[in-house]
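On clarity, I found the account of how folds are encoded harder to follow than it need be. Since the whole study asks how a given chain folds, the encoding of that fold should be made plain. The format is easy to grasp once an entry is in front of the reader. For illustration, here is how one protein appears when written out as sequence plus structure tokens.
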Amino acid sequence: MNLVDRFLHYVSFDTQSDELTNMTPSTPGQMIFAQALAEELKRIGLTDVTLDDNGYLMATLPANIDKQVPVVGFIAHLDTSPDLSGRHVSPRIVKNYGGNDIVLCAEDNVVLRPTEFPELLHYVGQDLIVTNGKTLLGADDKAGIAEIVTAMEYLLAHPEIKHGKIRVAFNPDEEIGKGAHKFDVEAFGADWAYTMDGGEIGELEYENFNAAVARITFKGRNVHPGYAKHKMINSIRIANQYAIMLPRWETPEHTEGYEGFYHLISFEGNVEQTVLTYIIRDHDRDRFERRKKELEHLTRKINNEFPDCASIEINDQYYNMREKVEPVMHIVDLVSEAMRAVDVVPQVKPVRGGTDGAQLSFKGLPCPNIFAGGLNFHGRYEFVPIQSMEKATEVIVQIAKMVAEK
């Protein structure tokens, strides 16, 4: 099976994750896909294929050289985002894209336009896989899975390319932040690894946000509004007062690069009780800690005006992998060299989000992130250039080759 056919087959599996089930994997479709993928890995000739009860699939490409070289791993996730349906994905290929608008669904007037998505113009003359405008595509991260499996199959078919032992893993629930929670780093047994989960061609990332979630609960008191003077405590109004005390420019829509933010993701309540949910993000650990302290300070400020009204709960989610990768920067330099060897220009940039690699790095497996090629993840405008997927596959092969040579 070639790379494109493999990818088109993979996106036919419905593997949306669901943070509300409290199971691992969070949805049965991920296990169904993992089971099919396990059989494929055995069929192409990988060894030590294991699939545990939590949906973590691992396998080995045995070394074909005698000398000892580091064991490198490649990882991608099985699930797709809960943000939009991944059921009945019906992709099509736009060959030799000409720079024009792409009608995804005429019925619903869903059009992929360069005026709205200017990155399309980077891929004029290439072949794009797009959605039918009703679902996401699933290139995040089934493009990564297809690239890893295709690279392993290529190395098996070309024994003249010498390489050490390579480990591959496919995990569930990355999209709900739990992809690395039950990942057995010791069983994986790699010296370092790469997640194939980045976006545009050339992306190489070893920095990500420090991340936390904060929930602030405001208690009110409801009294008939006609007789409420000096009696009613409206938790909605107090929550709104809290929200506007945060700096308006430190939000996702006003930040980029290394700039952090507070992001209000949920505002639910009534007069009696209101709950605000924020995610807190910053690349710098000190600024990250200060952001958490600022939310606590504002909670105390509210309580000074409305005694015992507000309470806050903050939970860290993940940290910036940079502090774990910098001591072994040769694993990043290796990827840059591998990209240039296959005519890809490395684009080293910070992740304005998180990856499984961040949590894995803190579990003892340094794990930078490499492009898988897709764009506009998590929505109906998602697409992936075939040529980018092909280059990602070449990068994997080149890394395996260079690890053995060095």
Summary: The first strand starts at residue 47 and ends at 51. The chain has a mean pLDDT of 96. The chain is about 30% helix and 20% strand.
